[in-house]
Amino acid sequence: MKILVTGGAGYIGSHTCVELLNQGHEVVVLDNLSNASEIALERVKEITGKDLTFYKKDLLNIEDINDVFENETIEAVIHFAGLKAVGESVAHPLWYYENNITGTLNLCKVMAKHDVKNIIFSSSATVYGTPEVVPIVEDSPLSTTNPYGSTKLMLEQILQDLHVADEAWNVVILRYFNPIGAHHSGIIGEDPKGIPNNLIPYITQVAVGKLDELTVFGDDYDTPDGSGVRDYIHVVDLAQGHVDALKRLNPNDGVSIYNLGTGQGYSVLDMVEAFSEVVGKEIPYVIKERRPGDIATCYAQADKAKREIGWEAKKDLKTMCEDSWRWQSNNPNGYGE
Ligand code: NAD
Ligand code: UFG
Question: What are phi and psi of 175, to 5 degrees?
Answer without folding.
Answer: -100, 105
